[in-house]
Amino acid sequence: MMAVKNGVTESTYIAETLIPLVAIGLPLSPVAAGPAAPLFNAPPVFTIDSASGASHNLHNLLSPWEFLGYGMLAVLLGVVVAYPFAMNYAHAAAAWVVRRLSQEAVIGTFAGLILVISVYEGGLLGLLVAVTVGIFGGLMNKLLGMHAGVQFMAYYTAALFVPTLLG
After folding, report:
1. What is the C-alpha separation between 20 and 29, in angstroms, rounded?
2. I need a labelling partner for 130 at 20 to 30 A (CA). Which of 68, 73, 107, 167 fits?
3. pTM, to two decimals
4. Residue ranges of the domains in the chain?
């Protein structure tokens, strides 16, 4: 049952990237605006002119049949390479982590990673923004029951709609 749920989730993420990329060429979904953004706008190779809406990215460089071909190649490689590793070693790796590492160590590692990335990317202001977003997200989850997935989508699309709201 969990494999089916995970498959649906992963296919949704992939669809939120591929549909805007193949059909329009603009990042119109939360996943396309967030983790998949370099496929749409990564100057100097892929660009989107916000004033005219003109784009030069994979949408312009590949035909729908090429998207299908490369997509099928990726699925085939995933089945041949990644799937056997995941099925054979995922349980053993997860059991090792649970037995050998404390929960505090795992949380501390992620907190340290967030700290390093936020300071590297934005200095002290970046750290302040990361802490503010974390506190605000935790309050939204605790007080309003807002799921982390909803927050994920809102944070990534904020880069598109906040400038529009501010004029």
Report:
1. 7
2. 167
3. 0.53
4. 102-167
Q: How far apart are CA 18 and CA 112, in angstroms?
A: 33
What is the CB neighbour count within 10 angstroms for residue 64? 9
Q: Which two tokens stand for residue 21?
A: 């990329």
Q: Which residues have a Cβ under 8 Å from the Cβ of 29 and sit 6 or more positions away?
A: 16, 17, 19, 20
Cα separation, 41 vs 48, whole angstroms: 6
Answer yes or no: is pLDDT of 54 > 70. Answer: yes
Helix count (H) and strand count (E) of the chain? 8, 2
What b-and-e string marks burial along 26-35, b requiring 16 or more CB atoms within 10 Å of the CB?
bbbbbbbbbe
Round the average pLDDT of the chain to a whole number and report it. Answer: 85
Asked whether residue 70 carries a pLDDT value surpassing 70, the answer given is: yes
pLDDT > 90? residue 59: no
SS3 37: helix
